[in-house]
Amino acid sequence: xxxxxxxxxxxxxxxxxxxxxxxxxxxxxxxxxxxxxxxxxxxxxxxxxxxxxxxxxxxxxxxxxxxxxxxxxxxxxxxxxxxxxxxxxxxxxxxxxxxxxxxxxxxxxxxxxxxxxxxxxxxxxxxxxxxxxxxxxxxxxxxxxxxxxxxxxxxxxxxxxxxxxxxxxxxxxxxxxxxxxxxxxxxxxxxxxxxxxxxxxxxxxxxxxxxxxxxxxxxxxxxxxxxxxxxxxxxxxxxxxxxxxxxxxxxxxxxxxxxxxxxxxxxxxxxxxxxxxxxxxxxxxxxxxxxxxxxxxxxxxxxxxxxxxxxxxxxxxxxxxxxxxxxxxxxxxxxxxxxxxxxxxxxxxxxxxxxxxxxxxxxxxxxxxxxxxxxxxxxxxxxxxxxxxxxxxxxxxxxxxxxxxxxxxxxxxxxxxxxxxxxxxxxxxxxxxxxxxxxxxxxxxxxxxxxxx
Length: 453
Ligand SMILES: *[C@@H]1O[C@H](CO)[C@@H](O)[C@H](O)[C@H]1NC(C)=O
Ligand SMILES: *[C@@H]1O[C@H](CO)[C@@H](O)[C@H](O)[C@H]1NC(C)=O
Hints:
The protein has nine helices and 22 strands. By secondary structure, the protein is of the alpha+beta class. Among the domains are: 26-186, Bactericidal permeability-increasing protein, domain 1 (Super Roll); 271-421, Bactericidal permeability-increasing protein, domain 2 (Super Roll), CATH 3.15.20. The strands form four sheets. Strands 14, 15, 16, 17, 18, 19 and 20 form a seven-stranded antiparallel sheet that branches. Strand 5 and strand 6 form a beta hairpin. Helix 3 packs across helix 5 (154-186) and helix 4 (43-51) crosses helix 5. The radius of gyration is 33 Å and the shape is rod-shaped. 31% of the residues are buried. Residues 1-17 have low confidence and may be disordered. The chain binds 2-acetamido-2-deoxy-beta-D-glucopyranose (2 copies). One 2-acetamido-2-deoxy-beta-D-glucopyranose is lined by residues 186-187, 189-190. InterPro entries: Bactericidal_perm-incr_a/b_dom, BPI_fold-BPI/LBP, Lipid-bd_serum_glycop_C, Lipid-bd_serum_glycop_N.
């Protein structure tokens, strides 16, 4: 019994501790999308238009015929977070209800009202997406004015209005709340779709759990799936410490936190595109890439190649790239082989001079373009250089440190930057535009402070 309890509890606990690869915090600024959803969907006007039509199952209202709703006022929507539940929504609006009254005359009722409901935030069982569901919709009459003759007993009029309006309005207005939520929910629709990372694979922002609501934001935890085009999903490395939002952001603001582990997994997809065969002899500020230049560092090259030959350099990244992030600084570590060969006469291929094993890191700068994370690198440091093979006998590869460092910066970094141009996809939700986001490198993650225009 205890064992079973522990099994259940322990799996729950470890589930709760599962380290998400990205976190999204949505403040009220983003949730005010609901306001624009209501405007964009013209839902109240549509409801008003429907009101006059006979609908199956809808009871006629005693005392009023030819009911119509017109002059619907632009709704003012107020939202409040309800911790643990979702969002409390109040739609304040007004409208004129017309019809033929029981007294035979044309009747006009001008009402000002509030529609309130709680939009519970759930995770859709089928799609796994966040979804709002409205509960407890109520219509509160704020003010009612009529053109009913004033010689009628006020009590009778009031009773009539009260019972009539309370009967007709919820049925008329509450579907509007649901319809707006359908509209808002649709704006999450593509959140967990696979998005391409170049040609090599995809990333999918899958929810790790039901989004959590606090008094000032909604938090969505993602367990992203990085999938190779042909092959298995790439597991995100365990970062050790749990991903956490740093403090100091304004209440109600919105942020996205992308872990270094997620970016590292995505870069693993791009590893092959970091390989390069470089044949140009004149590259930037570098001396001509020939055996003569190389002989200046390693005299044995001159013996093997008395006549100057162009150099061909082949770089193969042979370990998955690794990204590290510390406040203000991000480095991309690359491990690979660097093979220098002399170009032979046409058709004779290449003659390998030596192969070096190299470990170097690049300093990364981040930006956003077209809702993709862009990375631009510069060489930080050549960390190690070891001779793996040589056709010119032994030599001290340390003599090449300066030459290789310059070479990586001038000839190879442009190749890496070119490959990185594919960009890394950011979560697609609520029509978010990331272009105004402010980026900050924090401990083990990149923080995007989301700004709306
Ligand atoms: C109706 O909504 C408005 C705007 O949110 C609010 O100021 C007002 O107090 C509400 N009135 C009632 C009667 O609930
Ligand atoms: C979701 O993707 C489909 C197909 O690419 C697109 O037509 C639709 O506009 C997208 N929806 C949203 C809300 O971005």
